[in-house]
Write a structure and sequence with these properties.
Length: about 475
């Protein structure tokens, strides 16, 4: 008699591992912030649950899905392990024939910094069907698989991960590249030249995984200065392209990114911040001072009697100034990530982006700043943000609004919906007389574009979603409620 999934969860928990049960919506419970749950939350009707890897490394072979995947013996030999090394979890087609799906678990060696490893690598070392995971990732314990010993051994009892396996997921060391200096034309100001050089240095030294994002961000800032007359367009295009190529990106990718950033940046002109006026000579006589004051024409009248500069503000004031220019913001308290409402969706605003925005505000004023000042302002701003609403499970997001499954009604977007994405389709009401065919589900043709919605727990009616003759998405109730 096979051991139940609930018993396996209890065994794994007893060995010190973190069990992550599944929710009724088919997704695992949140686990990104070291959350822990009791094993009894795994239900009798569940088909799987997760175990957070933390200090373990998972070697996952999907020979049942990928024909080109290596055999278990070949894979283990590549790692310097015996070919009969037992898998921690596997699936059997018959009593004597496995289906090719295997999980091996290893212990992260002492002294290895988890931050130096990629937490999830597909087709590791170029091997089809071989995935490696660690850290804040899950290994899924499934009811239709055999779990060796009906548990996962204690971390200390697991074999140490082979050095070769660690090499497959170790992040490449980032070595900043140096770009040869380039001469700008006379049309580029000294301020523009410094800004362009700084942008190119940031692009060239960007780490893998953020190179294109850095190119887009820096090219956008340069384009704004081009629009403001600080940088010659030819200088910007030539030097940004050289920096993009030096960072290791493809020609097509660099050209497309620069063109996109240029188009947007030209709509937001930016000039060099005006220089600060020197203070009046305090040693002068009161009479001379009064005469000077009477005849002084302010070079920056818009800042006379204005709020203090950013470098004179407190951290909370800087945070308020940053938030005021970003629109409607909220924070996900689980991830501590800031989101901005676009009118239909909440888009993430990573700390790095917020810091760049804050730095740009300092530069615009010509004020001095430091990394600590900026990070403190960002952190302080977060403390005052409202908590973002979690997406409601009864809503289907469309480009022009949401369909409420509970109310069976369509309505415009609202920021309280907490939507992070939608299907990008325009929803429309049916035309007069337009209905679904009688007993549609029993005789719909293949490829008709319609499908039955997934049943909801406790639901009392069914709906169909599909594309009408006008190419617009429609939704119909197909069985009476009640």
């Amino acid at each position: 008699m096979s051991t139940s999934l609930q018993a396996k969860a209890a065994n794994i928990e007893a060995n010190g591992h973190t069990v992550i049960p599944y929710q009724s919506n088919g997704n695992p419970k949140p686990y990104g912030d070291k959350q822990r749950y009791p094993s009894y939350m795994v239900r009798a009707d569940d088909i799987q649950f997760g175990v957070r890897l933390d200090g373990m490394i998972l070697l996952d072979l999907d020979g049942n899905k990928v024909a080109e995947a290596p055999s278990p013996e070949v894979l283990l030999a590549m790692l310097g392990l015996p070919g009969d090394t037992p898998a921690n979890q596997y699936r059997m087609l018959t009593d004597s024939q496995p289906d090719g799906s295997y999980h091996w678990l290893f212990r992260l060696p002492a002294g290895v910094d988890l931050a130096s490893l990629k937490q999830s690598v597909n087709n590791a070392n170029g091997l089809a069907g071989v995935d490696v995971k660690t850290g804040n990732q899950l290994v899924y314990i499934k009811a239709d698989k055999v779990l060796h010993g009906d548990t996962i051994p204690k971390l200390a009892d697991l074999p140490e991960a082979p050095a070769i396996l660690l090499g497959w997921i170790t992040k490449p060391k980032h070595e900043p590249k140096v770009m040869a200096p380039m001469v700008s034309s006379a049309e580029t100001s000294r301020y523009g030249e410094r800004a362009l050089t700084s942008a190119c240095e940031a692009i060239v030294s960007a780490p893998m995984g953020s190179r294109n994002e850095t190119l887009n961000r820096e090219a956008l800032g340069v384009a704004q200065l081009v629009a403001g007359g600080e940088i010659c367009h030819a200088d910007a295009e030539r030097q940004l392209f050289a920096a993009g190529m030096a960072s290791g990106q493809s020609v097509q990718e660099v050209k497309a990114t620069i063109a996109s950033a240029h188009q947007k940046g030209m709509q937001e002109p930016r000039k060099a911040p005006p220089k600060r006026q020197p203070l009046a000579d305090k040693k002068g006589s009161k009479k001379t001072g009064s005469l000077l004051a009477a005849n002084v024409v302010s070079l920056r009248p818009e800042q006379d009697n204005a709020a203090p500069l950013l470098d004179q503000m407190s951290a909370s004031q800087r945070g308020e100034a940053l938030a005021s220019g970003l629109g409607t913001l909220a924070i996900n308290v689980d991830t501590n990530l800031v989101y901005r409402y676009t009118g239909s969706l909440w888009e993430p605003m990573p700390d790095a982006v917020l810091a760049r925005r804050m730095a740009a505000m300092f530069k615009q004023q010509g004020a001095k700043y430091s990394a600590r000042m900026i990070s403190t302002a960002v952190d302080t701003m977060k403390l005052g943000l409202d908590e973002m609403q979690r997406p409601a499970l009864n809503l289907i997001g469309f480009a022009n609004g949401v369909y409420d499954m509970a109310l069976r009604a369509f309505r415009p977007h609202s920021l309280v919906d907490g939507l992070l994405t939608h299907n990008g389709i325009e929803y429309s009401e049916p035309l007069v007389g337009e209905t679904l065919a009688h007993r549609f589900y029993r005789r719909r043709p293949p490829g008709s574009g319609w499908h039955r919605s997934a049943p909801r727990r406790g639901g009392t009616s069914d709906c169909a979603v599909g594309t009408s003759s006008r190419g617009q998405t429609q939704m119909r109730q197909t069985t009476p409620a009640g």
